[in-house]
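re: the backbone from monday

yeah here it is again, tokenized this time
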């Protein structure tokens, strides 16, 4: 029997404008994404629904089911097939349903990064490896642990121990933890640390927020938060998947850049970043988008200061209610307000050319497959 089709969630209502620009690294704005006419179901019914949506052949089904429902419950995300399938699609893409997914050749990747860092100090890799022959807290040498690395959680543990053991090791340079993302949904550690400042972490934790990211339960929780716990003005879920990869509101901002290109006649990259950033904070120097807007200032009836004021809101919901945003789209003839960001992906783990669009389409394919498992309503 063919399951009944499941409609895409409608765009959530517009949020109240935010009058004061906030630094990019500020704790995220926490707003659960409402959907129209959602039939309320109980937690028990949600568990039954998730059980039907999960792929047939995955290990630890009950664990995944409980972690998903717990995350939705504590984050106050509606229990809908669309939202459950969105999270499941990302998990499947990022980790193939493995709580601590293995990374091929991880030890070699780490040694290459260490060698590059040591090279800046004109120190041969062999000298660093010799220093790391000293024992670590688990009884093995640091070198052995790095040689045998298989997962990011193991890598995170090694570098956490290295940081605590730095004085005894007397290393010639800082061996800071290089991991920025991890867990079954490849969540940013920085996002997780910001999220707990805005929304208390609901589970008992034995150590740092960083370490929680690498657990299945914590990874699902933070991954669900970054994917769904914000109102997005999109007609299709694929743009949330793009945002998950490129940053919140990247698809909205790429559409804004496309509108600016139309008005200015320029061909700027549609990367979803409207300002230039350094260490997560806006730089004084104008981006290409800002310069193009400044040239359009008279047509927009906005000063350079007013343009900058509104652009500072590009990472939050309120940018969509700014004068700048509204006037650009009105002058451009109200083109699409959602565009796929055009970004090339770079990482030591990536061995071929990949883009945000490739990622979003891959996840969307898994999402559609999941929706086909949804029970008829």
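seq for it, each position gets an aa:
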């Amino acid at each position: 029997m063919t399951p009944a089709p499941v409609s895409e969630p409608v765009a959530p209502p517009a949020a109240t404008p935010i009058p004061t620009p906030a630094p990019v690294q500020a704790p995220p704005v926490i707003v659960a994404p409402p959907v129209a006419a959602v039939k309320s179901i109980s937690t028990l019914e949600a568990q039954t629904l998730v059980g039907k949506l999960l792929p047939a052949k995955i290990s630890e089904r009950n664990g995944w089911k409980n972690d998903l429902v717990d995350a939705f419950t504590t984050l106050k995300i509606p229990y809908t097939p669309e939202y459950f399938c969105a999270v499941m699609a990302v998990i499947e893409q990022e980790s193939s349903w493995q709580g601590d997914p293995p990374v091929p050749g991880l030890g070699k990747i780490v040694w290459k990064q260490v060698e590059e860092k040591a090279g800046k100090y004109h120190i041969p890799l062999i000298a660093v490896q010799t220093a790391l022959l000293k024992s670590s807290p688990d009884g093995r040498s640091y070198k052995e642990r790095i040689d045998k690395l298989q997962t990011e959680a193991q890598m995170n543990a090694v570098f956490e121990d290295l940081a605590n053991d730095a004085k005894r090791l007397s290393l010639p340079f800082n061996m800071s933890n290089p991991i920025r993302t991890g867990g079954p949904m490849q969540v940013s550690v920085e996002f997780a640390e910001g999220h707990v400042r805005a929304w208390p972490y609901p589970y008992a934790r034995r150590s740092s927020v960083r370490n929680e990211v690498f657990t299945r339960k914590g990874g699902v929780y933070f991954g669900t938060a970054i994917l769904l716990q914000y109102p997005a003005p999109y007609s299709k879920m694929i743009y949330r998947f793009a945002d998950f990869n490129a940053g919140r509101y990247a698809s909205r901002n790429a559409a804004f850049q496309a509108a600016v290109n139309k008005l200015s006649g320029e061909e700027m990259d549609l990367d979803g970043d409207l300002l230039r950033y350094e260490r997560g904070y806006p730089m004084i120097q104008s981006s290409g988008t800002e310069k193009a807007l400044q040239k359009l200032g008279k047509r927009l009836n906005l000063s350079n200061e007013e343009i900058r004021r509104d652009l500072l809101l590009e990472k939050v919901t309120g940018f969509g209610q700014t004068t700048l945003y509204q006037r650009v789209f009105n002058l451009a003839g109200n083109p699409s307000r959602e565009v796929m960001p055009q970004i090339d992906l770079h990482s030591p783990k990536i061995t071929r050319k990949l883009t945000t669009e490739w990622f979003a389409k891959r996840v969307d394919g898994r999402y559609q497959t999941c929706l086909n498992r949804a029970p008829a309503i």
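The chain is about 50% helix and 5% strand. The radius of gyration is 23 Å.
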